[in-house]
Specification:
Layout (H helix, E strand, L loop, with lengths): L9 H4 L8 H18 L6 H7 L7 H17 L15 H15 L2 H11 L5 H11 L10
Helix pairs in contact: 2-4, 4-7, 5-6
Length: 145
């Protein structure tokens, strides 16, 4: 049997770039920059990251974001993939993280719950939701994990 050779049209294979607002592009680049800084630091256990956070109003969102990035590997079961700052391409991990942070920022906790359950190990979901809510400053009056 002889395999058929087909000509592949490269323009059909190219994926369209997602349309992002300036705010979303800024958030993605900030996450990528934070991820680069976190590579040089030791990974942190999720529960340890939650316990170590000092809720300082001025720095809390950045601290939660960094704790989320440093412990996300534990919830995913592998190292998340981040591209360089300004790269046009986005990894699945980056897109997922942007979606979950956008949903949390909107207060759409149903979507956050769905996104977290779809990718995060069951034993880590509560802690990861805590870090996500802290990363967008959505503790509000009533706090629930």
């Amino acid at each position: 049997m002889i395999p058929l050779k087909t000509r592949v049209d490269l323009s059909a294979v190219e994926q369209p770039q997602p349309l992002r607002s300036r705010d979303q592009t800024g958030r993605l680049n900030r996450l990528r920059l934070s991820a680069m800084r976190c590579r040089a630091r030791a990974r942190v256990d999720v529960s340890e990251a939650c316990n170590l956070l000092c809720v300082d109003e001025a720095q809390s969102e950045l601290r939660f974001e960094e704790a989320l990035l440093r412990s996300l590997h534990q919830g995913l079961g592998r190292k998340p993939r981040f591209y360089a700052v300004g790269a046009a391409e986005e990894s699945f991990d980056e897109r997922w993280l942007l979606q979950v942070l956008d949903a949390a920022e909107r207060g759409d906790m149903t979507s956050v719950e769905f996104l977290v359950r779809s990718r995060i190990d069951k034993t880590m979901q509560r802690s990861i939701r805590f870090l996500i809510r802290g990363a967008v400053g959505r503790f509000g009056g009533r706090f629930t994990l």
